[in-house]
Design brief:
binds zinc ion; 5-stranded parallel sheet; alpha/beta; Zinc Finger, Delta Prime, domain 3; elongated; Rossmann fold
Length: 324
Amino acid sequence: MAFEKIRGQKKAKRLLEKALASNRLSHAYLFSGPAGVGKATTAAAVADLLLCESQQGDRPCGVCPGCAKKHSGNHPDYIRITPQGAAIKIDQIRALKEALVFSPFESGYRVVVLEDVHTMRREAGNSLLKLLEEPPPNNIFILIGSSAEALLSTIVSRCQVIPFFSLPLEDAATVIIAQSPGMEKENALMLAALSDGCPGQALTLETEGLFEIYTHFLERLRQQKSDEAVRVENALAFAAEISVLKETLPVLLHLFRIFFKDVMMVSAGGKSEQSCSPEVAAVRELWNLNQLSAKIAAVDLAEKALARNCNRGLVCEVLMLDLL
Ligand SMILES: [Zn+2]
């Protein structure tokens, strides 16, 4: 079956397998859940199945013309739309509409995958809504987004929502190792924990050097200095180091939040010390609950400031003075 390679996501796989086996597909699906847990991989697997032309045996067969074209990225009945810059733009939806005027060229279905649909502004969303309200026949839309709440409710109501979840750490580590052969299991488990069970996010960390920066941050946290001048100097030096990060800075802030939330959970007794990472255990005595919630609030504030395009250097300095 096409979903063999997808780790976890039992519910999503069961719903899709049932629909595919009985040939009762919805015309639109919304794959909803955190980034990096297999939504796009699953969408591609659905497309593989639908575009395979083999009439017998296991599908996708991997050898028919449909499979070959899909594999080479040239299948005319497979359309994948990703954000142009920060968002999916209305022009992209208009171009899609034009492409859908024609019936699918080859196989029975055309598969249209729209990634990060939560980035769409209202204008683009409304344009997509019109498509979903009167879908041209034999088109299967798969929308991929971080949550249904971020979308126009009218769009959500036109889709069958398929929920995706963070993976158990063991599963996430297996995915990470499969994509980074040679990685020690211990490191894969740490990346899995850092990314909250979202291996796709963990792999970004690994490739963009964020893991190293994050480890550096944890070291600095552990060496809290009593000398105020040294503390400020350390915080500012680290702020300068992270303020040059571009797209990955929000991921780093996300990690900071997960980390402090974990420390808070352990301190409040909601999570046992045995089940938390050694990094969390090492610093749990340093702050009380009020201080921890102030740190989480500082991360929230920095995220909002970055979203408003405030001066990155300044945002990082203020944040690090609060955290370190
Ligand atoms: Zn095939």
